[in-house]
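Please produce the structure of this protein holding zinc ion.
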Amino acid sequence: MTVRMSEMTWMEFDKKIKDGAITILPIGACEQHGPHLPLNVDTVIAEGFAERLAGRVGAVVAPTINYGYRSKPLSGGGPLFPGTVDLSGETLIHLVFDILEELIKDGAKNIIVLSCHFENEAFVCEAVDLVSQKYGNKAKMLIANWWDPMPVEIIDQVFTEVPFPGWAFEHAAVTETSLMMAMAPELVHEDRMVDTQGVTPCPYNIYPVPADAVPETGVLAPARSSSAARGQLIIDSVLIELEKMCSKEFK
Ligand SMILES: [Zn+2]
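Below is the modeled complex.
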């Protein structure tokens, strides 16, 4: 049977939830990812991990949130790129809150919010915190992404040709490009990859966002050396960790 809630009948969904299945809410973004990747990278990756994890642990994947919190210049390129469509923090908090509340009212007791857009984190935490204050022990909720559970030795194995630039700069670079090559190769334009060098992190934020804060390609670190094999390595190692998280937290 499908793991996608949207493709289940209400009775199928109801039974899964009553049997104690985990519900996963993926959250992505609609954000520029350079000349070689589509706007929906964070969404494809969030869904990709959610569906793979669901297949392993018998979870249900709720419909994905396709937009995220405001893109920042030095982690996502920022708001000045056409196609980057951002939500305010307030909207994201309300959106996540409303969805979680409905799921809990339907009987969901075990929930994972899988957010794969860096900037979402504080607002997702706020929404989950508010839901938790309201519903207490009715539901256990985890907030996860793919980069925090990734073992350090995997970072070393992925970054053998270019140095690891830090997670904020890993935007449209080796990890995201490799994950896309493994999950949705038809959306990757390898011939358009740019070898960005020498962008240095600014240790503070500037508003209004200066137009020259990031390279005009929107890419902050090189994607060179990306491959489907590296993507698969990340997928396999992260899924092991996410599965461990499920068996530890949802007994
Ligand atoms: Zn991204």
